[in-house]
Specification:
Structural class: alpha/beta
Helix content: 10-25%
Number of helices: 4
Radius of gyration: 16 Å
Largest sheet: 8 strands, mixed
Order of helices and strands: EEHEHEEHEHEEEE
Mean pLDDT: 94
Shape: globular
Length: 178
Amino acid sequence: MKERKVIVYIAASLDGFIAKKDDDISFLSMVEQPDEDYGYREFVKTVDTVIMGRKTYDKVLTFGIDFPHKERKCYVLSRSKKDTDENVEFYNGNLNELIQTLKKEEGRNIFIDGGAGAIKELKEQNLIDEYVISIIPVLLGNGIRLFAETENESRLQFVESKTFNTGLVQLHYRTVKD
């Protein structure tokens, strides 16, 4: 059985923000082009489980589209919400236990779909195997940082980079496990 990987797949500004202070992510649209999804469709074929923070989930619900992960098991990390809705299971338990349980199960990779709080918690516990970060060619100046400050240093191994005519650069790194 191939081990499932925990993969952060996300976009950020060149100065490291995933949203403006008011959770505005409209800057992402500057790289939208017909028939170009920067590998997203291929990536999601490799995952069957999604983990995201509650703020990210709430943001997705404002898009006015069908929930994009209906065909996948989806956990939303939340300290306040419990139970499930038609799309997700709210989870407020031990994150390490959840990841270890999921990795023992047969399945495809596990997609970390943001936000910053979820990524910070997973990174601090050394639970992220890979990062695929699409850098949007804009300097926002402030907002919600992709990587919040922590005391933990993480060494990464370069996998690949891809450039696109919109100026987007996609970086792929693997976490070096000590």
